[in-house]
Amino acid sequence: MEYRQLGGSGFKVPALTLGTGTFGGGTEFFKEWGTSDVAEASRLIDICLENGLNMFDSADIYSNGLAEEILGQAIKGRRDDVLISTKGTFRFGEGPNSVGSSRWHLIRAVENSLKRLGTDYIDLYQLHGFDAMTPVEEVVGTLDDLVRAGKIRYIGVSNFSGWHLMKSLAHAEKFGLTKYVANQTYYSLIGREYEWELMPLGVDQKVGAVVWSPLGWGRLTGKLRRNQPRPETSRLNHKLSSSMGPQVDDEYLYKVVDALDEVAAETSKTVPQVALNWLLQRPTVSSVIIGARNEEQLRQNLGAVGWNLTTDQVAKLDTASEKPKIYPYWHQAGFDERNPFPTK
User: Fold this and answer.
1) pLDDT in tens, 230-285
2) Is residue 308 part of a domain?
């Protein structure tokens, strides 16, 4: 397993991270992801550690805290061998303050996550979304306090716009506070908007990408193809998952899958392995979060590391997945003499 610097920090993380959204299945939404209990989660973690993957990502809202509880039980006795990342900000409770990134909610969210995980510190804590109702000063100051108290080692964000992240970074730098070093972001061969603004920001500010849903919300598993019925086990068959996830035009998807099929044949790898490997070669990417309902899926995803696509293969996938940029990014692309796109 390759280990990479997390943004501009001195912290190294594995190129692949195991997501725990499949642990528990405690709500109707998360049942569509998976229902791993403690025994199965422990087995998956065993396999990860055997292969050098030692980082596990969760969130307080995953199955209403059950995913964190299962992760905590599954790593019991081996906390020093693993890295834990988790997230908070979304609503957790009925009260008016049980949501967002206020000092009141963040401190409570971190304390409760620590209890569920059975640990006294979190290696990487990320805001699950931007809270426009709480001043940036309050948010960054609270996280800095939690870092200084030893409850969090590193901090990051998720699902922020570029200006959300940059404003936060500027405030932290101005007042000497702990800065975000990670951006848990949606990025895939069929979702490349991250490249337009957040990637250049990540390059400039040394914020590492921790990629979620790298297979495009289950569309790049190799099971979805033109003129073929959707497999029964696809999460896209479920109304909640299909409506909440990114929307993708079918013809565009099939064009990308066709290119993935070609590269998979050339490399003797699977379609998901090729899609994951493509991400691992992109600028700013520190780690890619893989999910697994079972041992077979996990072992297949672990096969995405230890090799690299050729330049020509990357170019083939780039071309197949390229989409017209929105303004001002299409205009900026024409001024690459002074404003080069970071992947060139």
Assistant:
1) 766 666 655 665 567 788 999 999 999 999 999 999 999 999 999 999 999 999 99
2) yes
Answer yes or no: is 246 within a domain. Answer: yes
Indicate which CATH number applies to the domain containing 135: 3.20.20.100
Whether 254 is a known active-site residue: answer no
The residue annotated as part of the active site, out of 62, 180, 186, 187, is 62
Domain annotation covers residue 77: yes
pLDDT digits (tens, 9 = 90+) for 25-60: 988 889 888 899 999 999 999 999 999 999 999 999
Residue 310 CB-density burial (10 A; 0-12 exposed, 13-18 middle, 19+ buried): exposed
Number of domain units in the chain: 1
Asked whether 190 and 256 are in contact (CB, 8 A), the reply is: yes
